[in-house]
TrEMBL record:
Residue intervals of the PAS domain: 89-159, 468-538, 720-790
Domain of life per record: Bacteria
Record PROSITE patterns: HIS_KIN, PAC, PAS, RESPONSE_REGULATORY
Source organism of the structure: Pontiella sulfatireligans
EC number: 2.7.13.3
The protein's enzyme class: transferase
GO BP term (any one): regulation of DNA-templated transcription
Response regulatory domain boundaries: 1107-1223
Lineage: Bacteria, Pseudomonadati, Kiritimatiellota, Kiritimatiellia, Kiritimatiellales
Gene: cckA_1
Keywords, ordered alphabetically: Kinase, Membrane, Phosphoprotein, Transferase, Transmembrane, Transmembrane helix
Matching Pfam families: HATPase_c, HisKA, PAS, PAS_3, PAS_4, PAS_8, Response_reg
Domain PAC: 162-213, 289-341, 542-594, 671-723, 791-845
Membrane-crossing residue ranges in chain numbering: 12-34, 54-72
Protein name per its UniProtKB record: histidine kinase
Coiled coil region boundaries: none
Length: 1229
């Protein structure tokens, strides 16, 4: 619309202002030219013409002012419009900068920030104020700063642009950034500012690096596995080999003609017809070509080659090409031949082995239960152990030969005969007086084989060693000194239990630290130098002391003595040491020094002049006052002088010396006698002097001690007493002064604060008013007898506050004697230690729970190893048995029981807090039914177990082991509430959203459906006051030692973790019911999950001849793993520890395709072994297993390293699936 108006005002095609100016000029000229003439013509009079000239001038001014106003308004309107458009443009630019994800900055020519976009601040985790005015180079990785500065230098040259990639420290760590920079030039063409736009390209960089790494891994894997790759093209009859193929066939590339005939010539003539037939059949049938044959190298040696290929055809069936791989299987063939020879040797070894062997026939009752075992076969070693000739043994039953045989032997044999599960067992055989280690297994149905050895001598020695170790460990654990061992880097390898008390950290926490982590910074240099000398081989020059930082914040003095630990070659491999807490000694030394200093201060500060002489009456020392009276500046100047050398006269010197000799000769003190003294200024002062003989430890007089007081200075002593009283009144510890009868004569303000009693209420009375009744009368009798005997008493007492509350104090009571040695007062100091005592009890309870957790973790590990053997061998049996038979069903039951036992171990591990949470979709009815047998055994025969379960109960998503823990704790709580018996009722039901809100759902949970699990007992019930505290940690109504108070708090925590809550309903005498509410889970989710799980177990994955290194220290599990993997088609080699595994790897030129290793090994761990082998083959797949569950940190560490982990016990199918997946993933890289 504005454009239309302007067009109307442009008749001449000129701007609007130009038109107005032209019109104004024309009108002005016309006015000037014609106005005067018109006036002269129209107005005759001169006066009238003058008047009209005035009006004409005014009119001209008005027109000029109007035109000027109109023009200026037009100009300023355009300026304002331009300003608005500029502001709008700047706002759009600002919004564009703030909204985009790219990083935008503006820097000056010195690389200092002038502008940073919000995205830049957010990306680097800094504010705009922190960045502006500072250079960006400190944010750039030091390796990239040179390239960055070089790129920036290019901006100062035409075309004034630059592109760079750099790493920068952001809030998420080091990230790759790509920058496109452009310069802003000033009027002289110099670079004034630089605009940079950056983008995060970390993922792109990582993808590029991952691609390069994958390519390199594929090349290394092919090279390490010594696998040759070949391709044959049918249209051109061309055979293509890689370099490995030439090495496999021992053929020179120059002699190879790139055709099938060249290949045929390398094959042994006896194998060629078969190979050609199989190759032709693969081409005709379109299936894979898989065969093995022999080739002859040019040196005449014969090698076995395994070939695997795939035929590619057109749509009409015409073959196009064949692609395949070859590898040398000669070592495998040689290994099989050696295995046959080994089996022949094994039979000879069996007949001559020192270990006993018996083969029994199982005799069963009518109920098909094993009741006795008849000896069928026995080797010489067993005959020797039985101490009977073979004729008396073969054909006779075990109970017949040994009527008094212990029942545990028959139970073990019967269990193995019934279940078919091998058992390793060691126990005493009383009839032979021996300790036998046995391995019992079923060689075939109806028979039982027993391998045993005499471990009597070993058991006796082990018992002696165990007792000795227990004694040594008890000594180590009960000592108050820290006994530790560190490696050469200062990392702790071992510490005893005393370290917990002296440092405040647990043993596990200390083992993760370095020695310097605990040492106070001011002692780092001296300790580092001492340890450096020890590690370099120099002997330590005595003990030395330093301070460590206690976890609570205070410092502890330790005295350290170290000793080197050397290996068999004499090389230092560790440093062990003993650190003793000398804090008390140091405090005592400091107190002694402080006491000496304080005593010196007192001696120097008191008005009395003090001096002491030897037997020759030569001065040995004095205080400052005496030195000043003697005209000396310091007491040391007096040493070695006599009275004749002093300022007083000869007569006075003779008088003083005569008195000194009299005291030393009589051996009696001379107290408070008056004598004159001449001062250096000539004045005379009268002194009140006392002298006593000085005696040594044997009682011999060795000198004289004298003190005199200027009687005029007594006022100064009174002032000193006032200052001392003020110090006592301001003490933070309560202080009480009593007379000899215990009547309170003085209390300081701290006593009033501590007890709540005012000073006036206490004075004149006794401290019986603060007695709590917690200590017996005998306790107070012993206290009074101690202090009345003249000794000090120290101890801990529980007192009562004025308001009735109890508090604990550390108290010290000391008698005060008069000059005659009679007790005239008692002084007591009292310090409140209530909070410290409570903290000590709490820490003791936590340490007990940590010990239970560690014990549970260890038991679970050993139990999982046993379960691993059960699951593994049962899996092998299932593969060999026909499905549907009774034997197959029995083995299935064995495997089910083993898996159930595995769940029990996970419950145990809950005590150690090391298991990661593994949620799955569960039905609580199944959980209750699965625990029914356990509950029956747990609660005993006098308690009836009743369950009322909702048939259509909704599932929940939860950790199965934690739900088992909830059930276990609730069952135990119900059992303990019914010591005389009763009924334990468990019920489940679905709860609607409305009902959950009415039941007290947690915030936000009332909009969902829940299920309710109720555990009810018929015990004595719970008081209302107790119900308020039942879920608090460490709260228990049981006697000390009968409960930790953690059971219901654990239930509360687990249920809250799963999004639910717990309620309790009870009345005294009517039992109690604990209601657990958990959010329900969509049923279609569990059905889909079950279908996925079923599909994943549809087929057993087979091996393809890959080589696997199995490392397991348990011989039974090692043999089991080898057997399972070999049966699946893998080439397996086993080792019992890390050293054997490394030897096996080094003895195998092509290494292994996969490492399957237990984490816990003797010596070095499986994780360390895997790290060593990864250095030899970076693409090596690593599968780790353990009876311990991984915590979250260990699980993340394994995942980061590319390791996979299986928790024992693991069945055969999951193991084979994991192995197959890892090998397939490795081959596809």
């Amino acid at each position: 619309m504005n454009s239309k108006k302007h067009s109307l005002l442009k008749p001449f095609g000129q701007p609007f202002e130009s038109v107005i100016t032209i019109v104004y000029i024309v009108l002005a000229l016309a006015w000037i030219v014609f106005s005067d003439r018109a006036l002269e013509a129209l107005i005759p009079g001169a006066e009238e013409q003058a008047m009209w000239q005035t009006w004409k001038g005014g009119f001209y001014v008005l027109m000029t002012a109007g035109l000027l106003y109109f023009s200026l308004k037009r100009i300023f309107d355009r300026v304002r419009q331009a300003q608005r458009e500029l502001a709008s443009s700047e706002e759009r630019y600002r919004m564009l900068i703030e909204c985009q994800t790219d990083l935008v900055v503006k820097v000056d020519s010195g690389n200092r920030f002038l502008f940073v976009s919000p995205s830049y601040c957010k990306f680097f985790g800094k504010t705009e104020e922190e960045l502006l005015g500072h250079t960006f180079l400190p944010l750039v990785h030091e390796d990239d700063r040179g390239a960055t500065e070089e790129a920036i230098s290019k901006i100062f040259q035409p075309p004034h642009t630059a592109y760079m990639e750099q790493r920068a420290m952001t809030r998420d760590g080091w990230r790759w950034l790509a920058w496109q920079d452009s310069a802003i030039l000033d009027e002289q063409g110099h670079v004034a500012e630089i605009i940079g736009v950056g983008r995060d390209v970390t993922e792109q960089k990582q993808a590029e690096q991952a691609f390069d790494l994958s390519s390199e891994r594929l090349r290394l894997a092919t090279q390490a596995a010594q696998v040759g790759i070949w391709e044959y093209e049918f249209p051109t009859d061309r055979l293509i080999w890689d370099e490995q193929m030439f090495r496999l066939y021992g053929v020179d590339r120059e002699q190879f003609k790139d055709c099938l005939d060249s290949w045929r010539k390398t094959i042994l003539p006896e194998d060629l017809p078969r190979v050609e037939t199989e190759f032709g059949g693969a081409i005709e049938g379109g299936h894979s070509f898989d065969t093995a044959f022999r080739v002859v190298w040019k040196d005449g040696s014969i090698h076995y080659i395994r070939a695997l290929a795939t035929v590619e055809k057109k749509s009409d069936g015409e073959p196009v090409r064949v692609v395949g791989t070859n590898w040398d299987v000669t070592p495998h063939r040689e290994m099989l031949a050696a295995l046959l020879e080994s089996e022949q040797d094994y039979r000879s070894l069996f007949e001559n082995m020192t270990t006993g062997f018996m083969l029994f026939e199982v005799l069963r009752s009518r109920a098909n239960v094993p009741e006795d075992f008849r000896i069928v076969q026995i080797n010489p070693a067993a005959v020797e152990l039985a101490e009977r000739p073979p004729a008396e043994l073969v054909g006779r039953c075990l109970k017949e030969l040994y009527p008094d045989i212990e029942s545990h032997w028959i139970d073990v044999f019967s269990k193995v005969a019934m279940t078919g599960t091998p058992s390793a067992y060691e126990n005493r055989f009383a009839s032979l007086g021996r300790v036998l280690e046995t391995w019992v297994f079923v060689p075939k149905p109806g028979q039982l084989a027993v391998v045993f050895s005499d471990n009597t001598a070993r058991r006796t020695a082990e018992d002696a060693v165990f007792r000795t170790q227990q004694q040594l460990q008890m000594i180590v654990n009960n000592t108050h000194d820290i006994i530790f061992q560190i490696d050469l880097q200062g990392n702790y390898i071992y510490v005893n239990d005393a370290a917990k008390e002296l440092t405040g950290y647990s043993v596990d926490q200390i083992l993760s630290m370095n020695m310097m982590d605990l040492i106070c910074p001011e002692f780092h240099a001296v300790v580092h130098e001492r340890m450096k000398r020890r590690i370099s081989g120099d002997p330590e020059d005595g003990h030395f002391a330093f301070q460590i930082q206690h976890r609570a914040g205070h410092c502890v003095w330790l005295e350290l003595a170290t000793k080197g630990v050397y290996d068999v070659q004499g090389n230092l491999e560790a440093v062990q040491g003993v650190a003793r807490d000398i804090t008390t000694r140091k405090d005592a030394e400091c107190e002694l020094e402080e006491s000496r200093r304080f005593l010196r201060i007192i001696i120097d500060a008191i008005p009395a002049r003090v001096f002491w002489k030897d037997l020759e009456l030569v001065y040995v020392g004095c205080n400052l006052s005496f030195a000043a009276d003697s005209g000396l500046t310091h007491p040391e100047e007096l040493v070695g002088k006599t009275d004749y050398d002093m300022s007083w006269g000869a007569s006075e010197a003779e008088l003083y010396r005569a008195n000194d000799r009299e005291v030393m000769e009589s051996g009696e003190p001379c107290i408070c006698y008056e004598e004159p003294q001449r001062r250096p200024d000539g004045s005379i002062s009268w002194l009140s002097t006392s002298k006593v003989p000085i005696r040594n430890a044997d009682g011999d007089i060795i000198g004289v001690l004298g003190a005199y007081e200027d009687i005029s200075a007594r006022k100064e002593l009174e002032e000193e007493r006032v200052r001392l009283t003020a110090a006592i009144n301001q003490s933070a510890e309560a202080m009480v002064v009593m007379d000899a009868r215990g009547i309170v004569q003085y209390v300081n303000p701290a006593f009033e604060t501590l007890t709540g009693y005012a000073k006036e209420a206490v004075l004149g009375g006794t401290l019986a008013m603060i007695k709590s009744g917690e200590q017996s009368d005998q306790f107070y009798d012993n206290l009074w007898s101690t202090i009345q005997s003249g000794e000090s008493w120290r101890g801990r007492i529980v007192n009562k506050h004025k308001d009735g509350s109890l508090y604990t104090v550390d108290s010290a009571i000391s008698p005060v004697h008069d000059s005659a040695g009679k007790i005239v007062n008692y002084v007591a100091t009292i310090r409140d230690v209530t909070q410290e005592e409570e903290m000590e009890r709490h820490m003791l309870q936590i340490q007990k729970m940590e010990a239970v957790g560690r014990l549970a973790g260890g038991v679970a590990h050993d139990f999982n190893n046993i379960l691993q053997a059960i699951l593994g061998f049962s899996g092998i049996l299932l593969m060999e048995l026909e499905k549907g038979t009774s034997q197959y069903d029995d083995v299935v039951e064995i495997r089910t029981a083993a898996r159930r036992a595995g769940e029990l171990t996970r419950q145990l591990l809950a005590f150690s807090s090391k298991r990661k949470v593994e949620r799955s979709v569960l039905n609580l009815n199944d959980m209750v039914n699965g625990n029914e047998k356990m509950v029956t055994r747990l609660v005993g025969a006098n308690i009836q177990f009743v369950s009322e379960l909702e048939p259509e109960l909704l599932p929940v998503e939860a950790d199965a082991s934690q739900i088992d823990q909830v059930l276990l704790n609730l069952f135990i709580n119900a059992r303990d509430a019914m010591p005389a018996g009763g009924t334990l009722q468990v019920s489940t039901r679905n709860v609607s959203a409305e009902e959950s809100r009415a039941a007290g759902a947690v915030n936000g949970a009332g909009e969902h459906r829940f299920i309710c699990l109720s555990v009810k007992d018929t015990g004595s019930g719970i008081d209302v006051d107790v119900q308020k505290h039942v879920f608090e940690p460490f709260f228990t109504t049981k006697q000390v030692g009968q409960g930790t108070g953690l059971g219901l708090s654990v239930v509360y925590g687990i249920v809250q973790l799963h999004g639910g809550w717990v309620a309790v309903e009870s009345r005294p005498g009517e039992g109690a019911a604990f209601l657990v509410y958990l959010p329900a889970y969509d049923r279609c989710g569990i059905d889909a999950k079950q279908e996925t799980v079923a599909a994943s177990y549809a087929a057993t994955p087979e091996g393809r001849g890959e080589s696997i290194l199995v490392v397991e220290d348990d011989p039974v599990l090692r043999d089991l793993n080898v057997r399972m993997l070999r049966n699946a088609g893998y080439v397996v080699e086993a080792a019992s520890n890390a050293d054997q595994a490394l030897d096996a790897w080094n003895n195998r030129s092509d290494g292994f395709d996969l490492l399957f290793c237990d984490i816990v090994l003797p010596g070095r761990s499986g994780e360390d072994l895997a790290g060593d082998l990864i250095l030899k083959n970076k693409a090596l797949p690593v599968l780790l297993c353990s009876g311990h569950s991984l915590d979250a940190e260990a699980f993340k560490s394994f995942k980061k390293k590319g390791f996979r982990f299986l928790e024992k016990p693991v069945a055969i199918l999951p193991l084979l699936q994991a192995v197959r997946e890892m090998l397939d993933e490795s081959s596809s890289v």
